[in-house]
Amino acid sequence: MMADSAPLPTILVLASGSGTNLQALIDASRERDFPGEIIAVGCNKPGAFALERAAQANIKTFVVNHKNFGSREEFDGALMAEIRRLNPDLIVLAGFMRILTGDFVRAFRGQMLNIHPSLLPAYTGLNTHQRVLAAGDSHHGVSIHFVTEELDGGPVIAQAEIAVNADDTPESLAERVQLQEHLLYPIVVRWFCEGRIQLGTEGVLFDGEILNQPMRLSNS
Ligand code: GRF
User: Fold this and answer.
1) For 107-135, how does the pLDDT look when each residue is reduced to its tens digit (9 = 90+)?
2) How many angstroms separate the alpha carbon of residue 102 from the centre of ligand 1?
């Protein structure tokens, strides 16, 4: 007799925009051996295309519209209530364009990942592609990190790097960075679901050992 298989870790994705990273995760989660299940997609913008992508994939969606709340605390409280109801093992921020309060972030410590379009700790915040070009950097990329109270400052799990070309524009950089995002996020989510990465007191643990440097996706 075959043993019942254990339930897969559950994933809730939060997005605000077009949801191309969400799509990459949906596509990955359809692979037969993917070790997690996307149970819901939450959004702060009612018309976001990410919601459409989730609906197409028969994934439950919910909207907590930040415009309906008088303060960040009230918005985060409502979002937290939705998340608690669904009780996911992992929260994946995929282009979720709201700054979360300390209470929210602490409530989900070690359970929340974010993707950021720069080689952190360089260029936290917005407009990273323009800033990389203005600085004349030769390299740029993407980082995936555990979310802590410091904006874009949590311990970095993995990065992918691209070379900056002389004729690059913010748009061309965004395009190449996004290609890397779509490769890297499913890999890191997979690691989390397999129990390979954790947030320890001193940083990221990978297979139980402190990760001294972010994992690198090589893409020459
Ligand atoms: C990505 O570039 C990500 O790095 C940033 O927001 C963008 C989201 O894009 N945090 P999409 O909605 O996944 O297409």
Assistant:
1) 999 999 999 999 999 999 999 999 999 99
2) 22
Report the distance separating Cα 219 and Cα 8, nearest Å: 30
Burial 67-91 (b: 16+ CB within 10 A, else e): eebeeeeebbeebbeebeeeebbbb
Which residue out of 14, 16, 20, 93 has the highest number of ligand 1 atoms within 8 Å of its CB and is therefore the one to mutate?
20
State residue 4's pLDDT score. Answer: 60
Output the pTM of the full model: 0.96
Q: How far is the CA of 160 from the centre of ligand 1 (A)?
A: 15
List, in order of start, the domains of the chain with CATH numbers: 10-218 (3.40.50.170)
Probe ligand 1: pick from 21, 51, 97, max atoms within 8 Å of CB? 21
CA atoms of 53 and 63, how far apart (whole Å): 14
Note if the bond before 121 is cis, omega within 30 degrees.
Answer: yes
Measured in Å, residue 1 CA sits from the centre of ligand 1 at 45
Query: CA 73, 113, 136 angle in degrees (round to 5)?
Result: 100
Q: What is the pLDDT of residue 170?
A: 98
For the CA of 23, the closest atom of ligand 1 is: 13
Is the minimum distance from the CB of 117 to ligand 1 under 6 angstroms?
yes
User: Cβ contacts of residue 182 below 8 Å, gap of 6+?
Assistant: 20, 21, 23, 24
| Three-class SS state of 162 | strand
